[in-house]
């Protein structure tokens, strides 16, 4: 996944990995529950897996629900089961369940697919079996858990580069932007992680900007109590590589927020903010003036004196830009001025 600021270690420590569902809150007092616990503990549950995959095609919704739930948990709790379940032919019937009008059946189908996608060997098979469009529909129509787990499943599938465009074309971006703005804390984290991955592709950056992503990003960066400042800033760093992204950031009053991060954010947040501001200011005299008027130079000087080499160089480069004459031969630079 592309990073436009920070290195891979920054990315890894900033985003949740969207691992398996956080469920496990299923009853264990029933005979089915006891069977499942025994199967999870056993070394060989191949017979149970084959029976559960067969039950996915049952005419009974209750049997389908039970089978999908048990597959969901078997795939969650034992990594070696993920290949076994896929090999037993579970993926296509699970994908069919994602389109179910029954909310619980859909949620179990989505989450089982997510848990199977944690095995890298399954990702290509899941995508080629037609999972992307149903997962996108679940992002729109599912329970809150189904939406969050659909976002995570799409993240896993987006780790195959060619799937990023397919996911964007399927309509995922506006739904992820909506989850980023209005979801639970977990939903916001999962949406930001998936958007960061998808927005390494130019077409998806444009879709995200057109979907109004800048407003929730700026709001999350402005709220230091959101625990989303870093994540939102990393997504933003992908978008300001485009002129449309820089324009949208300014229109949403993002520059004062970035300067506030320079003043009061953590060291890493300051490093992300200076990288974004440098990208904004490099080709626009108007944006330099705006950043300077917000009082960015004093915190940049402090950053340049206290930071590691990478951030120090960026802070110094931005200080040099901001200290250049703010008027003068403006006519010669009209192509640089875009607000």
Write the layout of secondary structure elements.
Layout: H1 8-14, H2 31-41, H3 46-55, H4 61-77, H5 79-87, H6 91-98, H7 103-117, H8 120-128, H9 132-141, H10 144-158, H11 161-169, H12 172-182, H13 185-198, H14 202-210, H15 214-222, H16 229-239, H17 243-251, H18 254-264, H19 267-281, H20 285-293, H21 297-306, H22 309-323
Please provide a written account of the structure.
The protein is an all-alpha fold and 339 residues long. Residues 1-9, 24-29 and 328-339 have low confidence and may be disordered. It is built from 22 helices and no strands. It has helices at 8-14, 31-41, 46-55, 61-77, 79-87, 91-98, 103-117, 120-128, 132-141, 144-158, 161-169, 172-182, 185-198, 202-210, 214-222, 229-239, 243-251, 254-264, 267-281, 285-293, 297-306, 309-323.
Which tags fit this structure?
339 residues; mainly alpha; elongated
Could you give a short description of this structure?
The protein has 339 residues and is mainly alpha-helical.
Low-confidence sequence ranges? 1-9, 24-29, 328-339
Distance between the termini: 30 Å
Estimate the helix proportion, in percent.
Answer: over 70%
Question: What is the helix tally?
Answer: 22
| Class per helix and strand makeup | mainly alpha
Number of β-strand runs:
0
Taken as a percent bin, the fraction of beta residues is: under 5%
Shape: elongated
């Amino acid at each position: 996944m592309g990073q436009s600021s920070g290195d891979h270690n920054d990315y890894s420590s900033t985003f949740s990995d969207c691992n398996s569902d956080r469920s496990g809150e299923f009853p264990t007092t029933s005979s089915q529950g006891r069977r499942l616990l025994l199967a999870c503990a056993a070394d060989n549950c191949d017979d149970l897996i084959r029976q559960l995959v067969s039950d996915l095609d049952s005419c009974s919704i209750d049997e389908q629900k039970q089978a999908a739930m048990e597959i969901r948990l078997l795939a969650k709790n034992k990594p070696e089961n993920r290949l076994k379940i896929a090999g037993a032919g579970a993926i296509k019937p699970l994908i069919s369940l994602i389109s179910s009008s029954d909310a619980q059946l859909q949620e179990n189908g989505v989450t089982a697919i997510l848990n199977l996608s944690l095995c890298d060997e399954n990702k290509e098979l899941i995508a080629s079996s037609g999972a992307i469009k149903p997962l996108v529909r679940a992002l729109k129509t599912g329970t809150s858990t189904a939406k969050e787990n659909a976002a995570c499943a799409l993240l896993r599938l987006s780790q195959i580069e060619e799937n990023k465009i397919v996911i964007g074309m399927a309509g995922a971006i506006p739904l992820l932007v909506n989850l980023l703005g209005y979801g639970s804390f977990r939903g916001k984290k999962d949406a930001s992680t998936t958007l960061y991955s998808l927005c390494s592709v130019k077409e998806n950056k444009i879709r995200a900007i057109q979907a109004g992503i800048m407003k929730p990003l700026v709001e999350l960066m402005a709220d230091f109590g959101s625990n989303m400042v870093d994540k939102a800033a990393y997504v933003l760093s992908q978008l300001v590589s485009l002129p449309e992204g820089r324009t949208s950031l300014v229109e949403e009053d993002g520059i004062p927020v970035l300067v506030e991060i320079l003043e009061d954010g953590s060291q890493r947040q300051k490093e992300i903010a200076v990288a974004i501001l440098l990208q904004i200011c490099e080709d626009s005299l108007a944006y330099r003036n705006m950043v300077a008027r917000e009082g960015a130079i004093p915190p940049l000087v402090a950053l340049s004196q206290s930071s590691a080499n990478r951030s120090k160089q960026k802070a110094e480069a931005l200080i040099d830009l901001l200290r250049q004459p703010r008027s003068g031969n403006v006519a010669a630079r009209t192509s640089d001025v875009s607000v």
